[in-house]
Each structure stands twice: as C-alpha cells, then as structure tokens.
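user: can you give me the structure for this one chain? tokens are fine.
assistant: on it. calling the predictor now.
[tool input]
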Amino acid sequence: MEGSGRRRNPYELTDDSPVYVISVAAQLSGLHPQTLRQYDRLGLVSPDRTAGRGRRYSARDIELLRQVQTLSQDEGINLAGIKRIIELETQVAALQARVAELQAVVEGAAAAMQQREAAVHASYRRDLVPYQEVQQASALVVWRPKRDQKKH
C-alpha cells in the first residue's frame, strides 16, 4: 500500500503465495505426487521453486490442479488439450485486464475533454448577442410628422 504510509505485512498470504510442499499439494488436490511432477514437466501447473529446487505450490496452483483433474477425468480432454485450454484462459484473463485498463484510460480522457470543453464554454464573452438574420417585410410604412396644431 504505497502512499498510505503503512507497510504491507510480509507474512500476509495471498492465493499466489507458494507455501505448500508437493506432498501437501497432492493431498489438497487429490492427486498423486508423481502426477504433480508430470504436470509440472508438461507445463500444465508450474509451481514456484525454493533455492534447493523444491516445488512450492500456491492455493491458485492447487485450484488449477483440481481443474486439470476435472477436465481430464470428467470431460475426457487429453493433457495437450488441457494445456491449450489453460493457455487460452490465461490469455483471456490478461486481455480482459488490458481492456479494463484501457477503458479506464478512455474514461479519464473523456472526463478531461469534458472539463476542457466546459472551460471553453465558460470563457465565452457574455456581452455579445448572437446575430440572427431578420426577414424583410414587404409592407411600406410612411412616416409623417405631426403638424403643429397652432399653425392651422
């Protein structure tokens, strides 16, 4: 939380925090540890690594392992198809985030444009009257000065 003056807790866990060793990840996902290693080799689920090269799975990795298992067992999709599905879902999520980012930029630009337009309108001189063309009438008006009543 930059700018707020508070430091973020370094021990705060998120869905992306790599905390589970392979045996715990296998239990949580309902898969055999060897299956997790296979999925890692194939690039389906790529956990973080420790300095000693040990795998550390996050809660998001566990959810992805469950999704792979569901697609494989329940839907009958092969591992190559599952890998492609995961890649496309990741790409869609990135594109959705980009669209949201660009939408925010466009909305900001529109708001700035409206402010500039309002400033221009506010700068108009108020002492000027817009010119409107007057239609010429075909009637003839004759002006006669009043006669002085004393002379008659």
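assistant: here you go. Helices lie at 22-29, 33-42, 59-73, 79-122. Strands lie at 48-49, 55-56.
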